[in-house]
Amino acid sequence: MSEQVDTIIVGAGQGGLSTSYHLKRQGREHVILEQADRVAEAWRNRWDSFTLITPNWTVRLPGAEYQGDDPDGFMARDEVIAYFEDYVERFELPIRYGTRVTFIEPMEAGYRVRTDKVEYETANVVMATGLYQGPRIPPFGSNLPADIRQMHSSEYRSPEALPAGAALVVGSAQSGCQIAEELYQGGRKVYLSVSGAGRVPRRYRGKDITWWFDEMGFWDKTIDNLPSPKAKFAGSAHGTGKDGGHTINLHQFARDGVVLLGHIQSIQENRIVLAPDLKENLANSDKGEAEMVKGIDTYIEKNGLDVPVETLPALRDGYEAEIIPELDLEGAGITSVIWATGYKFDFSMVKLPAFDEDGYPVQKRGVTEFPGLYFIGLQFLHTMKSGLLIGVGDDAAYVASSITTNGKA
Q: Is the dihedral of CA 95, 115, 131, 363 positive or negative?
């Protein structure tokens, strides 16, 4: 026997909660199906010292925009979790925890949603599972020796939880850089396999970089502004909010003793083969910062803003690093490998041709060509900020309005 519900939201992350908030305000019947046993599970799977990368003033879930006394600070992991818990309780959002959706198929009128517990029939489905559904680890990770402890960045918690010895961090976007920094500042020898992620300064000319993003309309960029559609999957730029926030610079890492490596091509037991692309990746990072700074300077001049002049330090230590073609894990004393290699997503539960060649939904601000099927909380769903706390609420309002306009009253 199927249960009848007007709208089902799959996933209780920031996109699902924001959509639920708006639907509830509009009096629309709905439930959120969440496979975890509690809210904010993705945020709980962060390391102990984790903080938001954007300032607190960007925390803008609808109806609960940040009102605290530290707008320029950076929420720690447990504060973020508490924020989500309070959000669900305050607005009494209808979440059914411990329910995993396995199959969504169209019916004559609406959709059949199968779970590991109950089957539903619904007029509308809002997919709010995001793009970070599962760890992505290269297949050659299985070639590592059994005595080396390996984990995805989502499993990392603290330096103390790792075995004694050197650590290899693979990937230098936000998570990889932050973990590598924590490890080497704690006295551990660190090897970092550098990716092509860019760099931006934490602060420039008296303002946090996030303030400039907002002021200059950077958050409002659409996918048309990218060099290619695949660019929406690029790793996030280096940065951190830890200890009040500061710039992360790989050249500083090299100066401090981190061994920078090119990206990994293969692994055979204790031998890692590395690409000779370290300097190329460093140059890409430097270029990203230079272009961002130039854009801010141009904006300041054009708009006549009264802000202090600043010249950022030009570090080049990484270019002096030896290019290492192969790394002997045993010889380097490496006892742990942390894969900061991103996440994978899979919408195959949706039995409709609603996706492009990358598996990303074909939609317009979350609305697909299939009546009653929506997506929310994805980067570049509409703009650059669509998947972030600063922008997801706007897209959720649009999706909820579409449901109310197109659905039955």
A: negative
